[in-house]
Amino acid sequence: MEKYDLAVVGAGPAGSMAAYRAAKLGLKVLILEEHGQAGSPPHCAGKLSVKAFQEFSLPSQCILNEVRGALFHSPGNLEIEVSKSNPESYIIDRELFDRRLAEEAVNAGAEAVFKCKVKQVDFRPSGGLTVKGSSLEVKVPVLIIAEGGTRKLSRSLGFQRLPVLKGIQAEMEDVSLEREDFVEVFFGWKFSPGFFGWLIPTGEGKARIGLCLREDMAEMSPRAYLEKMLREYPPLKGKVAKARMERVYGGLIPVEGPVKRMWHPKGVMVVGDAAGHAKSTTGGGVLFGLKAGWLAGEAASRLAETGRVEEALRGYQQACLKAFGGELSFTKRARRFLNRLSDGDLDQFFRFLSAHRSLLEVAERRGDTAYQSKVWKPMLKASARLVLEKPSTLKFAGKMLWKILQSMV
Ligand SMILES: Cc1cc2nc3c(=O)[nH]c(=O)nc-3n(C[C@H](O)[C@H](O)[C@H](O)COP(=O)(O)OP(=O)(O)OC[C@H]3O[C@@H](n4cnc5c(N)ncnc54)[C@H](O)[C@@H]3O)c2cc1C
């Protein structure tokens, strides 16, 4: 049997990046992917910050559209526009993106076996692990689990449980769109409890329309909520009146991560959604998944060099926390704050922001979809200035501040 230095479960962005980095550093890497190819079936809206393309060498042929802002809709049909002077995100073909990343890993020297679902991992008494897949079994000194939101394998090894978002999305054609360089965000507890809905234009009158919901806050299936949103959401129903639904798919996003420990002392690292690396505010997980994959690949290489398992894997966790731990912690609190707002609070919030453009201008200047915590301090300062200039705003600002403080605990 072939000998490998590292096995990676899952050929999503996190797994392929981990395999790529480790192979580049000289390890013999095996990727095990349960589906016939990377990226299929899809489970993503494909909105990826321009920063991801600046930080990594990513396949630009996957870019379908560029967006430079968002239109936010409140439950009571109020609208706020936040726009940037330059494109801030790309809308990508996620299936092609994942395929290209997996190819890059293979070009770097990794081997990939598709249609191989990993069902069990055993720790060997003599050290290392036995990875049992549906079509093969392999013994390796270290394993990276990049299995995405299902988290079955990582949970079976004792990694922490996390709350989960259920997402669903329809690809639609002939959508009546006034502008294709803006995404739209739909708030309202009746339509997407614990989260929001979206419309993401992919060009030529096509759009991805979907929503997520917190499974512990929902009363119906994601499909039922999606149909309700398409039928009843005021700013959306007109846009889709003549649209055709091409396909519908969904997925799970673990939130409120990361897991407390992203590694197991017997030689396992969890990366990407398997480790709770998606932002709790937006569910976006590709960028931090790529970062975690890169860092896990490096840790596997360090382990191969030194043989010191705990030191290498602990180093992986520390590097992740340094790179994006603050962002995950900020987005967790921001999501808790948002989930404390009723539909009435949200309408009031929209009215307040519309009446005080100075706050929206801060969001436009300082907001960053990839690193959302950057906007927090400038926003707080601008709010304090506003209260000093206009004492009548104190009551609403105080109410919001109280909810923010409650979200901190
Ligand atoms: C509806 C929806 C919309 C989203 N929109 C966005 C967005 O716009 N932008 C963004 O950044 N993020 C978005 N996300 C989140 C994003 O999709 C994930 O954060 C990202 O895919 C995580 O990458 P990953 O590599 O960790 O996992 P995944 O991409 O889920 O990849 C995991 C891989 O592991 C394989 N696998 C699983 N179990 C096994 C097993 N036992 N054996 C072998 N293979 C296995 C799977 O087949 C899959 O290929 C969205 C998610 C959903 C559900």
Provide an overview of this structure.
- The protein is an alpha/beta fold.
- It has three domains: 6-59 and 93-162 and 256-333, FAD/NAD(P)-binding domain (3-Layer(bba) Sandwich); 164-254, 2-Layer Sandwich (D-Amino Acid Oxidase, Chain A, domain 2); 338-408, no CATH class.
- The chain is built from twelve helices and 19 strands.
- The strands form four sheets. Strands 6-5-14-15-16-13-17 form a seven-stranded mixed β-sheet. A six-stranded mixed β-sheet has the order 8-2-1-12-19-18, covered by helices on one side. The chain has a three-stranded antiparallel β-sheet with strand order 3-7-4.
- The longest helix is centred in the C-terminal third of the chain and has 30 residues, at 309-338.
- Bound molecules: flavin-adenine dinucleotide.
Assign the CATH superfamily of the largest domain: FAD/NAD(P)-binding domain
Global outline: globular
Radius of gyration: 22 Å
Instruction: Predict the CATH topology of the largest domain.
Output: FAD/NAD(P)-binding domain
The secondary structure category is alpha/beta
Strand content: 15-25%
Biggest sheet overview: 7 strands, mixed
Shape-level CATH architecture of the largest domain? 3-Layer(bba) Sandwich
Strand order of the largest sheet: 6-5-14-15-16-13-17
What is the name of the CATH class of the largest domain?
Alpha Beta
Q: State the helix count.
A: 12
- Separation of the first and last Cα atoms: 52 Å
Averaged pLDDT, please? 95
Classify the helix fraction into a percent range.
25-40%
| Total DSSP E strands | 19
Distinct ligand kinds: flavin-adenine dinucleotide
Enumerate the spans where pLDDT stays under 50 for 5 or more consecutive residues.
Answer: none
What is the number of independent domains? 3
Regarding quaternary structure, what we see is single chain
